[in-house]
Amino acid sequence: MSEPLARVDRPAAESFQSLRKLYLVFLVFTHESAPKEYNERCERYWSQVGNQLANLEAKAGSAAHIYHEAVYEAGDAGLALLKDAYRFSYELASARCAGGAVLEALEDRELAAEVSDWERFMMMGYASRKVGELVSDLYTQALKKRNEHVLSAIDSTLGAGEAGVLFVGEGHRLQFPPDIEVFSVVPPALDELHRWLREQSNRADAERTDTGAPDTEHEHVAHEPAEEV
After folding, report:
1. For the chain, what are the domain ranges?
2. For the segment 108-123, what is each residue's pLDDT rounded down to a tens digit?
């Protein structure tokens, strides 16, 4: 069951202390080649996440477990996997681990690699619809197995009354156990970032229309993965 973040500000916030809780933080990435405006918005997002997450822990319970997408090692080995590729979430995770939280091995390495490979394959697009449908089906099967493993890792390590932080992509499709209260950490900067990305996309579409440039995005028959049941 998902609860709005604002609910923890109510006087009855202490009632969450006895429940299993999962704080969802969505992964947003900066890149040195990205526009300055984009990176600034990403940095503002992570700053706000840090503040909101600290406030949430103060009201509903400090995180005892850290879960992070793409991490298949626990403890220091897992933190080492995050250090270079996930700078902002690494800082939040390592600070909590220094305070006693445990970074858990969330992923099965082979399953995660399989899903990643299918995703890269799907981004290429296909001339054949049959091939596209086959790849989509295989991707969906792999994603289902991967998500089942992720949920099992969380369910088996998050104890009664404990809280955990899950760093994951926005389109995660995970269906959490009903006895875990889920709080999404969604600061205003995330909506600001989404709005900026939409504006850039609309501007690019308008410029392409004005110049009569071909829309190369539709040269192949690309297929979105089927929704997981």
Report:
1. 2-218
2. 999 999 999 998 888 8
